[in-house]
């Protein structure tokens, strides 16, 4: 069914980083079962209690820094290199804010929900690398204002890079979703766009996602096994 795709669109979610020790959101014991996203991941929450929100993301940043990429991250990086050497392209779109794809060897990662390891100044808009905690009094390296926030997308904000993502979807000849519950839009709608174009779609997840019915094919199990095995089947 899959043949030899040349333009692969891969969408990843928290399940791909789960075996690296980073919690998912909606599984039992997941982040959003323990913390209220409306108090931690919205612009209104940040305005109401910036220290609480910064502290939450400082903890997540520390956890992400301490984590190591797993076999799924590494297999995706290798597959992108192999496909590129054959004149194709693997577009890696992630909802994850960690940097495990990059540290797993992926040269090009599109973070539609932003990046934990970056800060954005709410005064001048400058985005800067940030691997350490962000504290309320920290000055922006560009304008000096004490107005930094994590450069992540909160509920009620627009995901990033949507034009690039839609362009990649429009030229893809295979759509793969890995480790995502398919419950947050617009990412959850991408399988529908892929199907409307008539390209094969496959889900790699621990168990059937919320939109499992939308996929042509699926492989269920831990991402560290299903992702390398699926790519190997494609010769990547
Ligand atoms: P979720 O927590 O909603 O879903 C994670 C999915 O990964 C679930 O379907 C799990 O079954 C699956 N999973 C868990 N462990 C796995 C493993 N070892 N291997 C494979 N799959 C596994 O996470 P996302 O779909 O990424 O947004 O959530 C999407 C967005 O919702 C996030 O980017 C975040 C969140 O609110 C924002 O913060 C804006």
From TrEMBL:
<dbReference type="InterPro" id="IPR050134">
    <property type="entry name" value="NAD-dep_sirtuin_deacylases"/>
</dbReference>
<keyword id="KW-0479">Metal-binding</keyword>
<feature type="binding site">
    <location>
        <position position="223"/>
    </location>
    <ligand>
        <name>NAD(+)</name>
    </ligand>
</feature>
<keyword id="KW-0862">Zinc</keyword>
<feature type="binding site">
    <location>
        <position position="121"/>
    </location>
    <ligand>
        <name>Zn(2+)</name>
    </ligand>
</feature>
<feature type="binding site">
    <location>
        <position position="140"/>
    </location>
    <ligand>
        <name>Zn(2+)</name>
    </ligand>
</feature>
<feature type="binding site">
    <location>
        <begin position="95"/>
        <end position="98"/>
    </location>
    <ligand>
        <name>NAD(+)</name>
    </ligand>
</feature>
<feature type="active site" description="Proton acceptor">
    <location>
        <position position="113"/>
    </location>
</feature>
<comment type="function">
    <text>NAD-dependent lysine deacetylase and desuccinylase that specifically removes acetyl and succinyl groups on target proteins. Modulates the activities of several proteins which are inactive in their acylated form.</text>
</comment>
<dbReference type="Pfam" id="PF02146">
    <property type="entry name" value="SIR2"/>
</dbReference>
<keyword id="KW-0963">Cytoplasm</keyword>
<feature type="binding site">
    <location>
        <position position="124"/>
    </location>
    <ligand>
        <name>Zn(2+)</name>
    </ligand>
</feature>
<dbReference type="GO" id="GO:0017136">
    <property type="term" value="F:histone deacetylase activity, NAD-dependent"/>
</dbReference>
<feature type="binding site">
    <location>
        <begin position="205"/>
        <end position="207"/>
    </location>
    <ligand>
        <name>NAD(+)</name>
    </ligand>
</feature>
<feature type="binding site">
    <location>
        <begin position="13"/>
        <end position="32"/>
    </location>
    <ligand>
        <name>NAD(+)</name>
    </ligand>
</feature>
<feature type="binding site">
    <location>
        <position position="57"/>
    </location>
    <ligand>
        <name>substrate</name>
    </ligand>
</feature>
<dbReference type="GO" id="GO:0005737">
    <property type="term" value="C:cytoplasm"/>
</dbReference>
<comment type="similarity">
    <text>Belongs to the sirtuin family. Class III subfamily.</text>
</comment>
<feature type="domain" description="Deacetylase sirtuin-type">
    <location>
        <begin position="1"/>
        <end position="236"/>
    </location>
</feature>
<protein>
    <recommendedName>
        <fullName>NAD-dependent protein deacylase</fullName>
        <ecNumber>2.3.1.286</ecNumber>
    </recommendedName>
</protein>
<dbReference type="InterPro" id="IPR026591">
    <property type="entry name" value="Sirtuin_cat_small_dom_sf"/>
</dbReference>
<feature type="binding site">
    <location>
        <position position="143"/>
    </location>
    <ligand>
        <name>Zn(2+)</name>
    </ligand>
</feature>
<dbReference type="InterPro" id="IPR026590">
    <property type="entry name" value="Ssirtuin_cat_dom"/>
</dbReference>
<dbReference type="GO" id="GO:0036055">
    <property type="term" value="F:protein-succinyllysine desuccinylase activity"/>
</dbReference>
<dbReference type="GO" id="GO:0036054">
    <property type="term" value="F:protein-malonyllysine demalonylase activity"/>
</dbReference>
<dbReference type="InterPro" id="IPR003000">
    <property type="entry name" value="Sirtuin"/>
</dbReference>
<keyword id="KW-0808">Transferase</keyword>
<keyword id="KW-0520">NAD</keyword>
<dbReference type="GO" id="GO:0070403">
    <property type="term" value="F:NAD+ binding"/>
</dbReference>
<feature type="binding site">
    <location>
        <begin position="179"/>
        <end position="181"/>
    </location>
    <ligand>
        <name>NAD(+)</name>
    </ligand>
</feature>
<feature type="binding site">
    <location>
        <position position="60"/>
    </location>
    <ligand>
        <name>substrate</name>
    </ligand>
</feature>
<dbReference type="InterPro" id="IPR029035">
    <property type="entry name" value="DHS-like_NAD/FAD-binding_dom"/>
</dbReference>
<dbReference type="InterPro" id="IPR027546">
    <property type="entry name" value="Sirtuin_class_III"/>
</dbReference>
<dbReference type="GO" id="GO:0008270">
    <property type="term" value="F:zinc ion binding"/>
</dbReference>
């Amino acid at each position: 069914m899959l043949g030899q795709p040349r333009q692969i669109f891969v969408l990843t979610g928290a399940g791909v980083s789960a075996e690296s020790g980073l919690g998912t959101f909606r599984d039992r014991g997941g982040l959003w079962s323990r913390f209220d996203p409306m108090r931690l991941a919205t612009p209104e929450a940040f305005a109401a209690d910036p220290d609480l929100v910064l502290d939450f993301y400082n903890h997540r940043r520390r956890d992400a820094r301490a984590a190591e990429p797993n076999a799924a991250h590494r297999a995706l990086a290798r597959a992108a290199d192999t496909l590129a050497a054959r004149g194709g392209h693997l577009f890696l779109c992630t909802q994850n804010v960690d940097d495990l794809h990059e540290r797993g060897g992926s040269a090009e990662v599109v973070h539609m929900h932003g990046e934990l390891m970056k800060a954005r100044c709410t005064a001048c808009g400058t985005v800067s690398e940030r691997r350490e905690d962000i504290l309320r009094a920290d000055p922006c390296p560009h304008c000096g204002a004490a107005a930094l926030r994590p450069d992540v997308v909160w509920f009620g904000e627009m995901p990033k890079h949507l034009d690039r993502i839609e362009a990649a979807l429009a030229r893809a000849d295979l759509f793969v979703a890995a480790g995502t519950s398919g419950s947050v839009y617009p990412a959850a709608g991408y399988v529908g766009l892929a199907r409307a174009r008539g390209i094969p779609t496959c889900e790699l997840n621990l168990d059937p996602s919320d939109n499992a019915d939308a996929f042509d094919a699926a492989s269920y199990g831990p991402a560290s096994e299903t992702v390398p095995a699926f790519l190997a089947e494609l010769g990547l």
